[in-house]
Design brief:
The chain is α/β, with parallel strands linked by helices. The chain contains 13 helices and ten strands. This is N-acetylglucosamine kinase.
Length: 329
């Protein structure tokens, strides 16, 4: 039976593919963890996102009275604009755990906190898609609109996977250069031709979203020396640098020590070409920039932020970092 005098925080990190919720006590101990599917309101829709988050929160509460919560912090992909945050707050307002102690913001803040305590930092997620935030020591931030192609976005597993098909299709029909991506795609999908994959997507026999799972093919084919794949991996590295350069420049941090934290599945692959080109680009952007690849789950950062907002001291945060580090990314 739950201790009726105990007090807790709930933290949620929600991305395009998964949602993690954790319940911690004020001593920094991990009491419960639940995982659900993706909860980005831009991808899933507002109602389904709220349903997913609520399911995860209810799972970690498991009978604990929401009145015992001193802090609830939700960090979600797709909360990029003030209007999106306001809409989400209104959508969860009637839920028992969503009180006046609710913090809502983009999941990049959780990624940043999971990977860095530096006063000047940039967090870049290279997961299914891409987004970034910059944070300066005085608390000033720089954000991106992050609405896909209409806001100039490219990169992440979705883009890399769709580019596997794009380049393979052009190689097969003669419009583009020959590439090992054709054989890699056919081996991965079991299709007899690239045209078959394209037609399957067109007629709904394959989900377009499944293309993101093909992104490792791009890295592997580049590692095999394929010129087309190499050019795409280089473009991905250049896009990471572009986010960092914009954030650092807009916050006037070019002369400062800055940690550039990258996370998400594509970043965690630690592809040698990707990281080498990214580091080289960062060195040209800001001489004191340091690249940090985050292996820790972003919910670690969400939990630390929630505890800090609840008044936790350094010892409690250290305890929580160890406990949350055990959560599988």
């Amino acid at each position: 039976m739950a201790d009726s005098s105990a007090r807790y925080v709930v933290a949620v990190d929600g991305g395009g593919s998964k949602t993690d919720a954790v319940l911690l006590n004020l001593e920094g101990e991990l009491i419960a963890h639940a995982r659900r599917g993706g909860s980005s309101p831009q991808v899933e829709g507002l109602a389904e996102s709220v349903e997913t988050v609520d399911s995860a929160v209810q799972a970690v509460l498991a009978g604990i009275d929401p009145s015992a919560l001193v802090q609830v912090s939700l960090y979600l992909s797709g909360l990029d604009l003030p209007q999106e945050i306001e809409d989400y707050r209104a959508a969860v307002a009637g839920l028992p755990w969503a009180g006046s102690n609710l913090v809502l913001d983009n999941d990049l803040f959780a990624l940043l906190r999971a990977g860095s305590d530096a006063p000047n930092a940039v967090a870049i997620v290279v997961g299914t898609g891409m987004n970034a935030i910059g944070l300066r020591a005085d608390g000033e931030t720089y954000r991106f609109t992050a609405l896909g192609g209409i806001s100039g976005d490219w990169g992440g597993g979705g883009s890399l996977g769709s580019d596997v098909l794009w380049h393979a299709a052009r190689a097969e029909d003669g419009r583009g250069p020959q590439t090992l991506l054709v054989d890699a795609l056919l081996a991965a999908t079991g299709a007899s031709s690239v045209a078959e994959v394209t037609e399957d997507i067109h007629f709904g026999r394959r989900a377009y979203g499944s293309l993101s799972s093909l992104s490792p093919l791009m890295m592997a084919t580049a590692a095999a020396g394929d010129a087309v794949a190499i050019s795409v991996v280089k473009r991905q590295a250049d896009e990471i640098v572009a986010y960092a350069r914009a954030s650092i420049g807009r916050l006037d941090m070019a002369g400062e020590a800055v940690q550039v934290v990258i996370g998400g599945g594509v970043a965690r692959s630690r592809d040698p070409l990707l990281l080498a080109r990214t580091r080289a680009g960062l060195a040209e952007t800001a001489a004191r920039a340091e690249l940090v690849v985050v292996d820790a789950p972003p919910v670690l950062g969400a939990g630390l932020l929630a505890l800090a907002d609840a008044g936790a001291d350094a010892a409690v945060l250290a305890q929580a970092r160890v406990a949350l580090g055990a959560v599988r990314p």
